[in-house]
Task: structure prediction
Amino acid sequence: MSSYHEPVMPVEVLEGLRIRPDGIYVDATFGGGGHARLMLEQLGPAGRLIAFDQDADARQNAIADKRFELVTQNFRHLKRFLRWHHALPVDGILADLGISSYQIDTPGRGFSIRYDAPLDMRMNEQGLITAADIVNTRSAEELQLIFQEFGELTNARTLARAIVSARQIDPILSTGRLLEVVAPFVKGRENKYLAQVFQALRIAVNDEIQALKEFLEQTAEVLKPGGRLLVISYHSLEDRLVKNFIRRGGFGRETVKDFYGNPIRPLRELNKKPILPGPVEIERNPRSRSAKLRIAEKIENDA
Result:
């Protein structure tokens, strides 16, 4: 639980946000509330902090402070709920992406390879689709695409076919059963391979890539000119999307342009290379090991 509340790169985040005491800020991934509490310490009586988290368990960490409001929704609904709370535009947004330590360490959620648990993986437990639904109903071609795109597995096709064959004998309903099916394909770095399999399914279950795209597009709309966007990512898929959006205004390799061929880039990149945690932090908080922080600023003349 302590790692659930321990914020990643706290000093770098506060420096990047440049919090104004009377400003309005967003913690788009509230979780244990570690970053939110640090942000509130920087705010004055007139400041506001709006936090988002789709996991109902995050409510137990809600902060009793009149300047704080928790929205129990996915951050893909950013603009709608900021408007609902009369909190537009905002001075800064922080998103600490991926799965939380608490979710990994809760056996019944099915996120971890360490526990034999129902194959769930829903960040929002009200969601309709579980990882078990995906592995037991999707075609071999669909599973291959999931493992290839979201897990970046080189043997995605072989793994997908094995899953389809295995489920015809016995449904794959638990993490333990999935590990049995995957075991013959693990070569060399076992934990890394299994983590990629679980990552792929988790991303598919929670529609994480599309949600991130929708969120990023809205950040440029809700920020004040000069406002800051900070995103901490933990794998290459996320980091690539964040980097491309900041640099090019979109998610592909080409810069988005208007009808006249002028670049449309609402944000200015403030760090060409991502900021990484130092060795002391990594030793104290192993979750931060793969973290990458990117910072952008809303261009002043793009009101």
Summary: The chain has two domains: 2-101+208-298, 106-206. Residues 106-206 form a domain with the DNA polymerase; domain 1 fold (CATH 1.10.150.170). The longest helix spans residues 190-206. Residues 148 and 154 are 7 Å apart (CA to CA).
